[in-house]
């Protein structure tokens, strides 16, 4: 029987690449949207069963990757801002800046097994909780996203805060920022050295998806050096990137959190899953400069079966972002 949601949403095709700020169709995860009001939107999404990053194990499709769910919602931000809040798509006038993230996956969703041969379809209910306006235009939005399957089974809740800066002004800001940091604006991105971390150590199958160069432990903390390869078609989806995107930082923190908990509990990293991820993005993360991560585990949560991992990203003695992740046994 066709559900009410399936009647409202089209899952037959993806949205235009320009609407979700992607360079190619294979990176688009949204299929449709229906504006219910100025602040309420219903969207359809699909996670490819053969996705090179978010669905690596194509024969054992289980649970949901928190990064994939956040990426779905991030793409939804563009759709809502362009179609319902007057940010012109044709002019490509605004730079979208990720400010804050809150995300949580339901326990049942971490353990669900996706039926063989069936698409992984997701319904996204978007609500704009706060709008900032500057000089008569929308300059920032805070969204709440409730994600569910087609049977209305709850998957996750995601909150995202973004601000929008005029692109001409943004380029001026970035040039001044790079000058202050002793860097050339929009310089070619360097290919990093091969890493020391194996994919299984961070619950990845493909070594090309590993975003950590090396990890060490000292004084009760884990210290890592990030590895961002500009050839990666998902994390670096456009060669003109002038900074390390929020989604790249999220993936590095996800991997470090799984690595640290697996080492601490002496458990296979594949048996673990990130159930929540909150982040505050404080400073622009530059390309071609070392990005260092420091992870600290909360001992109080280890005994309860949920391990809290606080991770701080630093660059040039400057705090770039702070992440707080919950890791639990998922299988």
UniProtKB/TrEMBL annotation:
Family matches, as Pfam families: AfsA (PF03756)
Domain A-factor biosynthesis hotdog, chain residue ranges per copy: 19-146, 202-325
Name the record gives this protein: AfsA-related hotdog domain-containing protein
């Amino acid at each position: 029987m066709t559900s009410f949601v399936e009647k409202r949403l089209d899952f037959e095709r993806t949205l235009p690449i320009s609407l979700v700020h992607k360079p190619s169709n294979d990176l688009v995860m949204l299929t449709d949207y229906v504006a219910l009001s100025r602040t309420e939107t219903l969207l359809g999404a699909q996670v490819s069963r053969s996705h090179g990053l978010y669905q690596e194990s194509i024969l054992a499709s289980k649970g949901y990757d928190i990064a994939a769910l956040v990426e779905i919602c991030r793409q939804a931000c563009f759709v809502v801002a362009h179609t319902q809040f007057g940010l012109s798509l044709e002019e490509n006038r605004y730079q979208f800046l990720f400010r804050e993230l809150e995300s949580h996956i339901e326990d049942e969703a971490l353990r669900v097994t996706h039926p063989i041969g069936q698409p992984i379809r997701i319904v996204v209910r978007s609500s704009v909780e706060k709008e900032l306006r500057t000089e008569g235009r929308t300059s920032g939005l805070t969204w709440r996203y409730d994600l569910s399957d087609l049977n209305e089974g709850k998957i996750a809740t995601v909150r995202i805060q973004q601000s929008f800066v005029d692109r001409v002004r943004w380029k001026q800001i970035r040039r001044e920022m790079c000058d202050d940091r002793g860097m050339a604006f929009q310089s070619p991105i360097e290919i990093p050295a091969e890493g020391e971390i194996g994919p299984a150590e961070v619950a990845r199958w493909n070594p090309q998806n590993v975003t950590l160069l090396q990890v060490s432990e000292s004084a009760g903390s884990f210290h890592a050096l990030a590895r961002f390869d500009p050839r990666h078609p998902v994390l670096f989806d456009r060669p003109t990137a002038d900074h390390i995107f929020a989604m790249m930082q999220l993936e590095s923190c996800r991997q470090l959190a799984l690595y640290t908990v697996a080492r601490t509990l002496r458990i296979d990293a594949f048996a673990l899953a990130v159930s929540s991820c909150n982040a505050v993005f404080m400073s622009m993360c530059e390309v071609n400069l070392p990005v260092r991560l420091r992870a600290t585990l909360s001992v109080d949560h280890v005994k309860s079966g949920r391990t809290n991992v606080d991770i701080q990203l630093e660059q040039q003695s400057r705090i770039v972002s702070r992440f707080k992740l919950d890791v639990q046994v998922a299988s």
